[in-house]
Design goal:
ATP Synthase, domain 1, 9-stranded mixed sheet, 1 helix, about 30% helix
């Protein structure tokens, strides 16, 4: 009897980053900590944070990739991971460094940009209101 395996697909906004079959386990990072999936686990959804996604296949063994924040969805044997950015590689230390340097820096830049946009919008609304009352 053949063991049950999962199909993993990692999607970026404009491309399929990775597509693997025969996956025996997956470990991803959420705000609450590491999140593990085995083939018989019930269907689920998880919000991912920047971190290391680990999966294992018979052919490749354990594979690690750095992923940005996103969503993991498991339906039956299919696991879909949709993230903003991903980096593959075998060296776990370099992947962890990539997460710290690249992905978290992008999050900070986005927070700054959102803050600036909110200030611009507030200023625009205030000026518009002042013109309307004159």
């Amino acid at each position: 009897m053949q063991p049950v395996r999962m199909n993993l697909k990692v999607l970026l906004p404009f491309e399929v980053f990775a597509e693997e079959t025969g996956v025996s386990r997956i470990v991803a990072e959420t705000r609450e900590g590491s999140f593990g999936l085995l083939p018989h686990r019930l269907d689920c959804v998880a919000a991912l944070v920047p971190g290391i996604l680990v999966f294992e296949t018979d052919a490749q063994g354990e594979v690690c990739m750095a992923v940005d924040e996103g969503v993991l969805v498991k339906t039956g044997p299919d696991v879909l991971v949709s993230v903003r950015n991903a980096v593959g590689g075998a060296d776990l230390d370099k992947l962890r460094e990539t997460v710290e340097r690249q992905f978290r820096a992008l999050d900070e830049q986005e927070r700054t940009a959102r803050s600036v946009m909110a200030k611009l919008e507030t200023g625009f609304i205030r000026r518009f209101t002042e013109l309307h009352h004159e």
